[in-house]
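Escalated from tier 1: pyridoxal-5'-phosphate holo job.
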Amino acid sequence: MSTITMDQLINSNPVLNNIKHSKEVFWQNPMYLPVKEATPKTNYSMINIEDSEARLQRFASFIRIAFPETEETEGIIESPLSQIKEMQAHLNETFMTPIEGKLWLKRDDLLPISGTIKARGAIYEVLKHAENLALEHGMLNSMEEDYSVFASEEFEQFFSQFHIAVGTTGNLGISVGTMARKLGFNVTVHMSVEAKQWKKDYLRSKGVEVIEHDTDFSRAVENGRAESDANPQSYFVDDEHSEELFLGYTVGGYRMKKQLENEGVVVDADHPLFVYLPCGIGGSPGGITFGLKQAFGEHVHCFFAEPTKMPSMLVGLLTEKYDEVSVFDLGLGGLTIADGLAVPRTSGLVAKLMRTFFGGGFSVQDDVFKALLSSLYEKESIFLEPAAVAGMIGPYRMATTEEGNDYIKSKGLSDKMHQATHIAWATGGSMVPEKDRNVFLEESKAYAL
Ligand SMILES: *Cc1c(COP(=O)(O)O)cnc(C)c1O
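Tier 2 regenerated the structure:
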């Protein structure tokens, strides 16, 4: 892309200009369409979500045996939803703008098996691949069989002929690696420069081959893809283009319907639902948004939170260049404490889909990540990894920015916000070792809101 085009774009768009100058922004998506119009323009529908849910149900008998921590949920990988009243009260005091409605935290940090939101998409993709191989090679005769056979030595032996590879900032590798090794696959994980040492150590302890790259996420993915493509027995979990990852995540969004019902939370025209999702490459917030929109239609409003240093989804959509532009083209980049969101270029597949589905996005400075992390720990005794806290500032961005206020007005919600439900999607944290936790907490202490 020529520099002139980029400069012209930046000069003609104040939000993009603020992004370029590392300022926090709130952006309302002008390309949004009602879900009834948006869905038929995509290749996906409720049928895909139901198919994915059915696959996860089929594998539940295997997961229950292979991962005894899922005994309570009978092999289903799901997380609790809890109201965070102390944190809400604290934020209200700090910002002197009370949040209208109630603030909840979706605890994907507690997801079994891998303790991050990646357990939804990545595990789904590995299972789908394993199912395909088993059917192709006659290990399974039909999808009606009891999938507990996947826990057998015979299956492990079978999968040991095959290879799975992935490129990652860390968490995707943990989810792919843990599930794929359990099934018997050989696994190679290509790590970007952000990846924490404990994640590499953990994977190696599971028998995963870890290749460290001295490059950013996009380059680590490129290297991993090239190496995997050279081996016909190898399958690459491709964070930049994967439909299966996306579909795995959609289930998490759709399941909120039942979970909110169980909590007695009403979502309708008078009781809007706002969901704030941390966004890296876009797969997890994108898939969950798609599922939420199918579940709640116009009553749910989804916003993505990104670090000011790596706002790849915002940059992709504001320039309408999607994955053909990177944050480096705006002179951004550099290490962020939100390592799980350190993605310079968005997924084209997801960004083009989200164009008509999500309400918009906002960016968050590293200091705010730290402040949210330490406040949540202090007020609720919940530790989240930095990437996972971004959504909690969402209701304030909604309430205190001009763009946020415009959004509420344009949707006719001004007099309904006192009945709103706000969900900050917590995307990870429970696996962070104590030593690393203490480093984050120490680093964040001075930033308490
Ligand atoms: C990967 C990740 C995200 C974002 O998911 P994407 O699919 O990359 O957008 C958010 N939080 C945590 C903890 C993650 O690991």
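The mean pLDDT is 95.
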